[in-house]
Specification:
Layout: E1 5-19, H1 20-33, E2 37-40, E3 45-53, E4 56-64, E5 72-79, H2 81-86, H3 88-96, E6 101-111, H4 123-148
Antiparallel strand pairs: 1-5, 1-6, 2-3, 3-4, 4-5
Length: about 150
């Protein structure tokens, strides 16, 4: 197909064994310098920092909730590729304080130059098949229960 553009919308990277004595001052500096939002959560990662500067953004998450009590934890960075370049100075410092840098995932976008009027949703048939399957399952369940339970 002609004119299809593929782009990476987000990159997710884990920095392992980042010491608390590095993360805490970094978090404070990001909150002061970028007016970043800081959250403490009880699911997934415990500490989260959301950094925004113009069109650039980055999310930092630190210490998995279920991780045992320690001074070193995983720090996860999520941001678009252009923000990696924009925030390179402090992101490289995280890399200097980590044992390993692990690629987690990327979000890939496909821009297809077609008007929506010519795009036919694929899920219509699947939903119809599920509805038929649900009816058959209900019929089978009611037949089985009528054989097991005595009729009143």
């Amino acid at each position: 197909m002609e004119g299809v553009k593929v782009s990476i919308d987000r990159i997710v990277v884990d920095f392992t064994n980042v010491h608390w004595t590095f993360f805490n001052p970094l978090r404070q500096w990001l909150c002061d310098f970028y007016n970043a939002a800081f959250y403490v959560k009880d699911k997934g990662f415990k500490y989260r920092v959301r950094v925004r500067e113009g069109k650039h953004w980055a999310y930092l998450s630190y210490q998995l909730v279920y991780a045992r009590l320690a001074r070193k934890h995983t720090l996860r960075l999520e941001c678009p590729p252009d923000s990696l370049v924009h925030f390179q100075s402090w992101i490289s410092e995280i890399g200097n304080h980590a044992t390993e840098i692990l690629y987690v995932r990327s979000d890939v976008a496909f821009d297809i130059p077609l008007p929506l009027s010519v795009v036919r949703p694929v899920f219509d048939e699947e939903e119809h098949e599920e509805e038929e399957g649900d009816v058959l399952l209900q019929q089978a369940t009611s037949a089985a229960s009528s054989r097991i339970l005595p009729s009143v």
